[in-house]
Specification:
The protein contains 7 helices and no strands. The protein has helices at residues 2-12, 15-22, 26-52, 61-89, 91-94, 98-119, 136-158. The two termini are 21 Å apart. The relative contact order is 0.15. The chain is elongated, with a radius of gyration of 18 Å. It is mostly helical. Helices cover 77% and strands 0% of the residues. Helix 3 packs antiparallel against helix 4 and helix 3 runs antiparallel to helix 7 (136-158).
């Protein structure tokens, strides 16, 4: 735990963290990018997840994935970079909060869920064409993704209050 505390102290003292903490406009701007990143990430992921659950069966899953996944990655990149910057401004306090650690754990679980889906389940995505309900493993991955990302958003909001 001492190493983590040292890392958080170092992060909080970096020039970007100090600039963010001192600026009246920079912190809200980065926070806005964080929210927009998560909106893009969760919105695009939800489109794919809902299709996996059987919504909009007139669209092939592969087509939805080709359109949604680049947006998911862009949203994730924006949310991750801005999230590290936001954490840096108050790293020694926020970085050890159970609610923050739970948020990180759920993000990791969402990543594992996505990796498993793409490595194992999505191999047969071409068979889930028009009007076809995806297999149970795909539906489970979609449900887990929706649930995990919703929980990440809730925990993210709670960080300021707990």
């Amino acid at each position: 735990m001492v190493a983590v505390e040292r890392l958080l102290t170092w992060l909080e003292q970096t020039p970007p963290a100090v600039a963010l903490a001192r600026s009246i406009w920079l912190y809200p701007a980065v926070e806005s990018v964080h929210i927009l990143g998560f909106a893009l990430l969760v919105g695009a992921a939800a489109c794919l997840d809902l299709r996996l659950l059987g919504v909009s069966r007139r669209l092939p899953v592969g087509l939805v994935a080709r359109h949604a996944l680049p947006l998911v990655w862009l949203g994730f990149a924006l949310a991750a970079v801005s999230g590290v910057l936001l954490l840096a401004t108050d790293a020694t306090e926020t970085g050890l909060k159970p609610v923050f650690l739970a948020k990180l754990a759920l993000i990791a679980l969402a990543g594992v869920n996505a990796a498993f889906f793409h490595a194992r389940v999505a191999r047969s995505v071409t068979a889930w064409g028009l009007g076809v309900m995806p297999p149970p493993a795909a539906r489970l991955a979609g449900l887990l993704s929706l649930t995990l990302w919703a929980a990440v958003l809730v925990l993210g909001r709670l960080i300021a209050y707990v």
